[in-house]
């Protein structure tokens, strides 16, 4: 069975590294980038099983990025599970996250058990 691939977009290297360690321990293969523009470049070239998107990122934020993913011509890619990571849940309501195209939302400080749970759920065949 091949490893599931997780793309993490997070401009905080602390959170990025923690999430990477925890998910690698769960046998996921991790690719990490710093902003939404990099997400779009790499999703174009490679296949992932799930994307974790920080909402507040430079260049292209999580909200713009999820909309761009959902608008992709490739059905497999446009239907990727995408999870929002937000430090300030007050910026958007759960409805707004759902409307933008997110499958789920994780609030900082990250609950890593919940992170693993959501990633497991959304990448199950």
TrEMBL record:
The keyword Phosphoprotein applies. The modification 4-aspartylphosphate is found at residue 54. It comes from the Bacteria. The keyword Phosphoprotein applies. SUPFAM superfamilies: CheY-like (SSF52172). InterPro entries: CheY-like_superfamily (IPR011006), Sig_transdc_resp-reg_receiver (IPR001789). Residues 5-123 form the Response regulatory domain. GO terms for biological process: phosphorelay signal transduction system. Keywords: Phosphoprotein, Two-component regulatory system. It holds the Pfam family Response_reg. This is Response regulator receiver protein. It comes from Runella slithyformis (strain ATCC 29530 / DSM 19594 / LMG 11500 / NCIMB 11436 / LSU 4).
């Amino acid at each position: 069975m091949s490893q599931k691939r997780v793309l993490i977009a997070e401009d905080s290297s602390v959170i990025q590294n923690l999430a990477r360690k925890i998910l690698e321990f769960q046998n996921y293969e991790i690719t990490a980038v710093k902003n939404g523009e990099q997400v779009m470049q790499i999703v174009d070239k490679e296949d992932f099983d799930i994307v974790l998107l920080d909402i507040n990122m430079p260049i292209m934020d999580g909200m713009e990025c999820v909309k761009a993913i959902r608008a992709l011509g490739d059905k497999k890619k446009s239907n990727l599970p995408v999870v929002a990571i937000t430090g300030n849940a007050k910026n958007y309501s759960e409805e707004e996250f759902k409307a933008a195209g997110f499958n789920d939302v994780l609030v900082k400080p990250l609950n890593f058990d919940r992170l693993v749970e959501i990633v497991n759920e959304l990448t199950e065949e």
